[in-house]
Amino acid sequence: MLVNVLMEQRVLQIKEDLELFDNDLDKYEYIIDLGKSLEPLDKDNEKDENLVQGCTSKVWLICEKKEDKLHFKANSNAMIVKGLVYILITLFSNLRAKEILDINLDVLKKLNLAEIITPNRQSGVVGMMKRIKEYAQALKENNEK
Amino acid sequence: MYKEHFEYFSNNKSIYLDNAATTQKPKAVLDVMNDYYTKFCSNIHRSNYSNANKATTLYENARNYLQEFINANENYEIIFTKGVTESINFIAQSFVKDNFDTVIISKLEHHSNIVPWHMQGKTLHKGLEVVNCDENLNFDLDHFDELLTKHTNAFVSIAHISNAFGKILPIKEIVKIAHKYNCPVLVDGAQSLAHIKIDMQDLDVDFYAMSSHKTFGPTGTGAIYIKEKYLKDIKPYQTGGATINDVTFERSVFLDSPYMFEAGTQNIAGVLGFHEALKFIENTSYEKIHNSELDLYLYLYKELSSIPDIVFYSDVQDSIGSLSFNITGLNHEDIGILLDKQHVLVRCGHHCAQPVMKYLNIEGTIRVSIAFYNDKYDVNKFIIALKKAIEILKD
Hints:
The structure holds 2 protein chains of 2 kinds. Chain A is of the alpha+beta class. In chain A, 55% of the residues lie in helices and 12% in strands. Chain A has one domain (2-144): Sufe protein. Chain: A (Alpha-Beta Complex), CATH 3.90.1010.10. Chain A contains 6 helices and 3 strands. In chain A, a hairpin with a 2-residue loop joins strand 1 and strand 2. Chain A is globular. The two termini of chain A are 25 Å apart. The mean pLDDT of chain A is 86. Chain B is an alpha/beta fold. In chain B, 40% of the residues lie in helices and 16% in strands. Chain B has helices at residues 7-11, 27-39, 50-69, 84-99, 115-118, 141-150, 171-180, 200-203, 228-231, 268-284, 286-305, 332-340, 354-359, 376-394, and strands at 15-16, 78-81, 102-106, 123-124, 127-131, 154-159, 185-188, 207-211, 222-226, 244-247, 252-254, 310-312, 322-327, 344-345, 347-349, 365-369. Chain B is globular. Chain B folds into 2 domains: 28-283, Aspartate Aminotransferase, domain 2; 285-394, Alpha-Beta Complex (Aspartate Aminotransferase, domain 1), CATH 3.90.1150. The longest helix of chain B has 20 residues, at 50-69. The chains are: A alpha+beta, B alpha/beta.
């Protein structure tokens, strides 16, 4: 599927960027900087129903539809997580609902997120993927009505 | 100077400051466990050949040693368990459930001394009462007395040292007050043995839960002290092999304590390792441990105090081991990750003590927890790494 080719390209781009750093602290400074580029989320949207389950820190995620594509907005109370959220949002934004549902999530393994976040925090990534797919599923069902 | 006894420190150059989570193990502990598995591995309290007899003897020697170590009156007052969590669950299930209307705990408890009571349907003001603390997290003895006046059939279950904040609770006073109302007291000693000498006669507690792995011993092992007068009222928590005197299809006749409470094959290597860890403490001496730790604890506090925007949640009066803080405007998890990337190992989070975090209106803290083998070098490295983390996050 075409979306998986596109996804692989997006993942490889991020992977390349992360691999530029030999020093761990520099890599994290970069991730923190990425978080600063997140499109702001209205304070009104920082509510419990938008919280992603499984995250050690708080992550709020919402989805907006622009034309027929999905755009995600998010925020976190932790700066490193915010950077990781930026990465995930970049990967999944500007795609159609059906495309998001067709994505094979195995491609994310190439990012080696396990090296960046601890095992305790990886359930947050799973929670975020789940929430993104739920948004896509809901939108797809809505389109089919 | 003490690190040379711990192989972990020669294999690992990280600065280990997470001793409240688990302590490192001296070589002597690992050697004893290895000896058991490689030289005389056999089950205890069953077979009668020489290796099995040796294992049984050493296992029972460990019980006798622990009895003396904590100054219990009898060796059958010591029951080996998997650790503090199992010890509390055991007493909750086998003794408290059917005998008490109310359980009284402190605000500083970790989940192991909260959730077992919830499992019995005891929730706040419906069978569970929580003693107030002041702005420095000191236990409110007056409020405790008040609660005991109101709840006449109460069981008291209290931490000796707070895992998150290092606060030492006034156990002797707590026990005196509780006994005035004929209420038994269980003390959760998860954080105690690594830092302070405990004495069952002096404290006069009725139950004392201990952890091996937080006391330089192996994981999966611990013990509970049960004052003799309560033994007859406690039912076995689990049953099975080595707990019974006689079994027919009609009925089971149990052995006496401690055997009736130690069902199935025990963690033999773990108990032998625990024994060795206690011997290691004895050889080092609590006096030396305490002096070296207290100096370092105060040094840590002084160094941290100079960091701008630091927030502490208690003073260092009557405290040992753990010190918790936050930096205003920064997330504790971010700081934890950046410390880890600089090879400084501390715990950041709620420390399995969410209720006290909620009480303080925070999600968690950065917790530094020291043991006697830590030194100023460790603290200095930690402070440098912390300053770097703050610089990155505030940039």
